[in-house]
Amino acid sequence: MTADMPLRVETADGVCRLTLSRPEKLNAINAALGAALADALDDCAADAGIRAVILTGAGRAFCAGQDLDDRDPSRMTGPPDLGATIEQVYSPIVRRLRNLEKPVICAVNGVAAGAGANLPLACDIVLAARSARFIQAFAKIGLIPDSGGTWMLPKLLGEARAKALAMTAEPLDAETAVQWGLIWKAVADDALMEEAMALATRLAQGPTIGLGLTKRAIQAAADQPFDAHLDLERNLQRDAGRTPDYAEGVSAFLEKRAPLFRGVR
Ligand code: LHQ
Q: How crowded is the C-beta side of 103, counted as CA atoms within 13 Å?
């Protein structure tokens, strides 16, 4: 990996840390960064040794969304097809984050704007530095919140707060984001990475298959009625009950010792 790579990938102790690394542009996403992130998430899915993922940003920002330097209208011949950008860059990342059946922790280390404010919402557990701000910046440039924003915001916050954040583009501070249920925790700036690593390391020692099925079940809840969901829970619990980690968990409980989960089928 060379110094000018837009994404830093570091794996240790079952945790893969992905760091958006264009700090001079507040980690704004260009085609190279988008592709690198999608590829890295594929690698995380394929590697059984990776049992938890952290997404964070280098420098003072988490991510300022789309790199607008690539979008100067004066250098374009006609109106752009932003749908193509969504299809090629953003939706593939969001789908991978949601479909990855391993815990994904987002450590929002600073300002998160535009698509950069919504990528954390596609992760499973979001920790933010107290100084971080979430900005649905899209309205400032005539766009709609993308990267799943118009789905996640009303789901997490309700329509009233979702619409106000999206239409005003006012920043939301990390503590309020916690109070409103947008994210899990706000932590002191200088403790963020340590806390995120501790959480990821703990989860990487967990029953990975069961955690992945838990993620699938919770996400599926939005798509189906309660009765159908009970059937899904039955099926996934059947699957979880056949994992060696279930047997290990119960044995460890009965033997009054800590379980040693291996995270495999
Ligand atoms: C940037 C950016 C940036 C380039 C800061 N690009 N350089 C999907 C489909 C296709 C197209 C369109 O978009 C999308 C999804 C989206 O994400 S749309 C939303 C795009 N993002 C934004 O509108 C946010 C733009 N940035 C900002 O509003 C501010 O920079 C924030 C509030 C994030 C931070 O403000 P400050 O802390 O005051 O920092 P700054 O504005 O001074 O930025 C520092 C540098 O980073 C600066 O460069 P410079 O050379 O002057 O130091 C900025 O130009 C650069 N930068 N965001 N998105």
A: 23
Mean of the per-residue pLDDT values for the chain?
97
Question: Which residues, 6 or more positions from 80, have their beta carbon under 8 angstroms from its beta carbon?
Answer: 71
From 21, 25, 26, give the residue whose CB has the most ligand 1 atoms within 8 Å, as the site to mutate. 26
Gap between the Cα atoms of 34 and 253, Å rounded: 43
CATH class name, domain 7-204: alpha beta
Domains of the chain: which residue ranges? 7-204, 208-254
Q: Determine the Cα–Cα distance for residues 37 and 237; give it in Å rounded to an integer.
A: 31
Average confidence (pLDDT) over 64-93: 96
pTM over cut 0.85: yes
**Using a 6 Å cutoff on CB, does residue 82 contact ligand 1?**
yes
CA of residue 172 to ligand 1 center, whole Å: 16
- Is 1 a residue whose pLDDT tops 50? no
